[in-house]
């Protein structure tokens, strides 16, 4: 199994990359993957994505530790994903109260997957904008630059929020899974003032398996794409990719 991660600040941003990437074992045979994209109109949006990303890591570490001491959980992937997100809601609400944060300081999208290495199944949730690519097939989720951020619903409670979620995927026979923020759609040749065909970036970064045994594969593919097309991402870019 190989896991690749890529973070790249966009040309439209100057001070901070607002995307964040997570790849961490959530069990002996399961992996937690996520990409997050902070809202540029929010307050310190790089903080929101990093905060939520670190909450995900904490929960994954706790789950991995409990499994190593109590044995593997019998939870299906379809049950584990909402359990994970319910813990995220609880942690985020607690931190919001402790630090006196407002909702605008917590606005970030979330594309998250739990992958079972043995069964080659994955459960994916997309909360806001983002892309999912599995075995060459891709799903694009675009909310017209008005993502329905999870932080909007902390006061309503997890059950109310989860009951309205429709951007969910149950995948089987997973060999190659990529999660990406929508920055992969923003490549542009700034000298020629022309946008790159989004399918070119998707193919090069989320589908191509050239040099797949190189742990720096994504960085190499990004550099090749930039050299060949003179295009760079305008928006921040976050990618996590798993090849079984």
Structure commentary:
It is globular, with a radius of gyration of 18 Å. It contains five helices and 13 strands. The mean pLDDT is 93. The strands form three sheets. A five-stranded antiparallel sheet has the order 1-13-9-6-7, covered by helices on one side. By secondary structure, it is α+β, with helices and mostly antiparallel strands. It has helices at 45-70, 77-99, 158-162, 198-207, 217-229, and strands at residues 2-8, 19-25, 30-38, 108-116, 121-127, 130-134, 137-141, 168-171, 176-180, 187-189, 194-195, 232-233, 237-243.
Order of helical and strand elements: EEEHHEEEEHEEEEHHEE
CATH architecture: 4-Layer Sandwich
User: What is the total domain count?
Assistant: 1
Q: How many helix segments? A: 5
Beta content: 25-35%
Number of strands: 13
Q: Averaged pLDDT, please?
A: 93
Name of the CATH class = Alpha Beta
Quote the distance from N terminus to C terminus: 4 Å
CATH topology: Phosphatase 2c, domain 1
Low-confidence stretches: none
Helix content: 25-40%
Task: Describe the strand arrangement of the main beta sheet, using strand numbers.
Answer: 1-13-9-6-7
Question: What is the name of the CATH superfamily?
Answer: PPM-type phosphatase domain
Features:
244 residues; single chain; alpha+beta; 32% helix; 5-stranded antiparallel β-sheet; Phosphatase 2c, domain 1
Summarize the structure.
The protein is α+β, with helices and mostly antiparallel strands and 244 residues long. It has 5 helices and 13 strands. Helix 1 packs across helix 2 (77-99).
Strand and helix map with partners:
Layout lengths: L1 E7 L10 E7 L4 E9 L6 H26 L6 H23 L8 E9 L4 E7 L2 E5 L2 E5 L16 H5 L5 E4 L4 E5 L6 E3 L4 E2 L2 H10 L9 H13 L2 E2 L3 E7 L1
Antiparallel strand pairs: 1-13, 2-3, 3-4, 4-5, 5-8, 6-7, 6-9, 9-13, 10-11, 10-12
């Amino acid at each position: 199994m190989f896991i690749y991660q890529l973070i790249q600040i966009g040309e439209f941003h100057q001070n901070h990359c607002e995307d964040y990437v997570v790849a961490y074992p959530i069990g002996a045979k399961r992996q937690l993957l996520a990409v997050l994209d902070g809202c540029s109109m929010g307050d310190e949006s790089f903080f929101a994505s990093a905060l939520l990303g670190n909450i995900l890591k904490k929960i994954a570490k706790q789950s991995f530790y409990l499994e190593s001491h109590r044995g593997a959980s019998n939870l299906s992937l379809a049950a584990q994903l909402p359990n994970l997100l319910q813990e995220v809601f609880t942690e985020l609400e607690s931190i919001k109260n402790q630090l006196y944060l407002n909702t605008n300081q917590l606005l970030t999208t979330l594309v998250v997957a739990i992958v079972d290495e043995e069964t080659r199944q994955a459960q994916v949730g997309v909360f806001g904008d983002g892309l999912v690519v599995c075995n060459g097939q891709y799903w694009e989720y675009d909310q017209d630059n008005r993502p329905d951020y999870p932080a909007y619903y902390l006061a309503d409670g997890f059950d109310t929020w989860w009951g309205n979620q429709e951007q969910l995927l149950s995948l089987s026979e997973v060999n190659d899974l990529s999660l990406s923020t929508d920055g992969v759609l923003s490549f542009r040749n700034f000298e020629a003032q022309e946008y790159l065909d989004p399918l070119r970036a998707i193919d090069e970064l989320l589908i191509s398996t050239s040099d797949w045994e190189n742990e720096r594969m994504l960085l190499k593919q990004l550099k090749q794409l930039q050299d060949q097309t003179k295009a760079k991402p305008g928006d921040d870019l976050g990618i996590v990719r798993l090849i079984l």
